[in-house]
Design a protein that fits this description.
Helix content is 58%, strand content 0%. The protein has 14 helices and no strands. α3 packs across α6, α6 packs antiparallel against α13 and α10 packs across α13. The longest helix has 24 residues.
């Protein structure tokens, strides 16, 4: 078994309505549940190396970084995202914020589907793990380090969305361009951007769980958790997949990446892959999914076969 074959041969979820399990206790806070899940940590490097080794076994020599291969992987990314979108047709709807309290967290606390174990939740968790591994595969083909790309994009996002300007708001970064100087054409490059560093031990930027906490804190500082419901984040992630596809839509299936793409274009690819990964990490967090563990289980399943 290979990791790539596992991504497309495992069963997918039907679109029949999910049934939520009854709950007998008060909903737990999202922070309590997810902090407990962070005790086991998965290194980005472990996932990267596993995917890279798998790709080297499958691909023909000197064919790993072709435009055609990358475009195939973008199509595959769309296919996996499509399965997740089908799943989200049947998950509980996001609830309306019922309080003016900035600390109020909407779904998933309000629905036991997200906090209680079930076959449906397990299947969704596996799908998110599949998508995560596929982002590593695209990154490897493009000679990018996914962890570095994510940390650079978080650093850039911090400049685009200053806490004091965007707290509690859901606007685009261009709403703050007058203050930040970052527009649709200026200030977007991350080639020379330093990677985001952690401020405490919990934000271990070498692990999936540490970066998940980093992203969670980024959102909480800006009071964005009120907007970060599962279906909201899933739609945002789907939009970022489209932006990644847009880079390759007119490239044709000829030539190698190194010859066809400029350094700025590769930087743009890294940013778009990072955007998908950031929303995926955030989606897993609000859905109480241990994304690193799900990815690790998929890899170990292949190794056992």
């Amino acid at each position: 078994c290979t990791i790539t074959s596992l991504l497309f041969l495992t069963p997918t979820m039907t679109s029949t309505a999910f049934t939520s399990l009854p709950t007998t206790t008060s909903p737990k806070s999202i922070l309590t549940i997810n902090s407990a899940a962070m005790t086991s940590r998965v290194d980005f490097a472990y996932l990267r190396d596993s995917i890279t080794n798998d790709a080297n076994r499958l691909d023909k020599p000197n064919h790993n970084n072709s435009i055609a291969t990358t475009r195939d992987q973008i199509f595959e990314l769309g296919a996996i995202t499509g399965v997740i979108c089908t799943t989200f047709l049947s998950v509980p709807h996001d609830v309306t914020n019922k309080s003016d309290n900035d600390e109020y967290r909407p779904s998933p606390n309000d629905d036991p589907f997200w906090t209680e174990p079930s076959q449906q939740k397990e299947e969704l968790s596996r799908q998110l793990g599949e998508l995560f591994l596929h982002l590593f595969r695209i990154s490897a083909t493009c000679n990018l380090d996914l962890c570095v790309c994510v940390l650079k994009k978080i650093e850039l996002n911090g400049q685009k969305y200053p806490v004091e300007l965007c707290k509690g708001k859901a606007g685009k970064y261009t709403d703050y361009s007058e203050h930040t100087g970052i527009t649709t054409t200026e200030g977007q490059c991350t080639i020379n951007t330093p990677t985001k560093t952690s401020s405490n031990d919990m934000e271990d930027t070498s692990t999936v769980e540490g970066i998940t906490i980093l992203i969670r804190n980024f959102a909480d500082e800006r009071l964005w958790h009120r907007h970060h419901c599962p279906r909201n984040i899933a739609l945002a992630m789907m939009g970022e997949v489209g932006e990644l596809a847009e880079i390759f839509q007119w490239k044709k299936d000829e030539g190698e990446l190194d010859a066809k793409l400029t350094e700025k274009e590769l930087d743009k690819i890294g940013q778009e892959v990072a955007d998908v990964a950031i929303y995926l990490l955030r989606l897993a967090d609000v859905c109480h999914v241990q994304l690193g563990e799900e990815a690790r289980k998929l890899i170990e399943a292949c190794e056992e076969d």
